[in-house]
């Protein structure tokens, strides 16, 4: 089995280290690895970093269209200092993350802080997406956000906009404390909201597997119950890995997932 690893340039040190760590894991797992700078359709599996970049999005689209399977990496949902997230055949894993119950072992070993920070009368936080995603998804994002803001205002909620940080930002626990809901097209902030006991509304991203796509007319949605939250986080823990330490285990999971 050959894995093409697309290392497009320019690439960050984080991306290079992640791809190299998983390349090492692939070899140890008995897989053949080929690094490329441009998509070359060298094997049934494609591994890349940053599926939101136009060139990598197109490579993934072509590979999946032609019957291959693609694994797309990006920053993790938590433990971001050492882990990266992975999606299958798409920029985000909402189509597969809740497809079946996965063991709770990975969540037990690396559980993010959880809380009950919801205030049903609090503000609605609009977590905006970055420029790259705005180009990727186009004007539909602004139209959808504007509709959600109108719904929130009609329900009597204050609106707090949170641009995607470009540098140091306040802790997410502080930014979301006392919110009635988080609205985002797609963002890791939706996952943060879930773990903090705050309902999220989103169109894309991992959280879309368990969150509604729009605010309602009568009230903001309620948070996930504790059991549903833990099941989501427990499954999501299987979609983020430490490339330096878990490379072989990553490929064992990938082989099972893509079989």
For the structure shown, list the relevant keywords.
single chain; 259 residues; alpha/beta; 6-stranded mixed sheet; globular
Descriptive report:
The chain has 259 residues and is α/β, with parallel strands linked by helices. It has 9 helices and 10 strands. Strands 2-1-3-4-5-10 form a 6-stranded mixed beta sheet, sandwiched between helices. The model has no long low-confidence stretch (mean pLDDT 94).
List the topology elements.
Elements: E1 2-6, H1 13-28, E2 32-36, E3 45-49, H2 54-65, E4 69-75, E5 84-88, H3 105-109, E6 124-127, H4 131-137, H5 140-154, E7 159-162, H6 172-176, E8 181-184, H7 188-195, E9 200-202, H8 226-236, E10 240-241, H9 247-258
- The percentage of residues in β strands lies in 15-25%
What shape does the CA trace take? globular
Share of helix, binned: 25-40%
**What is the typical, i.e. mean, pLDDT?**
94
Main beta sheet: 6 strands, mixed
Tell me the Rg in angstroms: 19 Å
List unreliable stretches of 5+ residues. none
How many individual helices? 9
Strand order of the largest sheet: 2-1-3-4-5-10
The oligomeric state is: single chain
Count the beta strands.
10
Alpha-carbon distance between the two ends = 12 Å
Given helix and strand content, the structural type is alpha/beta
**SSE pattern, N- to C-terminal:** EHEEHEEHEHHEHEHEHEH
């Amino acid at each position: 089995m050959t894995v093409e690893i697309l290392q497009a340039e320019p690439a960050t040190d984080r991306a290079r280290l992640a791809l190299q760590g998983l390349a090492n894991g692939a070899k140890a797992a008995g897989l053949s690895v080929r690094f490329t700078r441009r998509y070359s359709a060298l094997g049934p599996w494609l591994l890349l970093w940053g599926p939101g970049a136009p060139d990598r999005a197109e490579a993934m689209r072509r590979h999946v269209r032609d019957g291959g399977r693609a694994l797309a990496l990006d920053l993790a949902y938590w433990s971001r200092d050492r882990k990266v997230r992975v999606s299958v055949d798409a920029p985000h894993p909402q189509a597969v993350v809740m497809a079946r119950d996965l063991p709770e072992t990975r969540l037990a070993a690396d559980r993010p802080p959880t809380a009950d920070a919801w205030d049903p009368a609090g503000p609605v936080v609009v977590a905006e997406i970055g420029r790259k995603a705005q180009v990727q998804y186009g004007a539909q994002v602004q139209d959808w956000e504007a509709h959600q803001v109108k719904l929130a205002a009609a329900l009597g909620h204050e609106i707090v906009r949170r641009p995607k940080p470009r540098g140091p930002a306040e802790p997410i626990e502080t930014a979301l404390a006392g919110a009635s809901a988080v609205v985002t097209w797609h963002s890791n902030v939706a996952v943060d909201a879930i773990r903090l006991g705050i309902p999220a509304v989103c169109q894309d991203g991992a959280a879309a597997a368990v969150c509604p796509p729009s605010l309602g007319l009568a009230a903001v949605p309620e948070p996930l119950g504790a059991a549903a939250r833990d099941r989501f986080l427990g499954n999501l823990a299987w979609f983020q890995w430490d490339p330096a330490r878990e490379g072989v285990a990553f490929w064992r999971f990938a082989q099972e997932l893509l079989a």
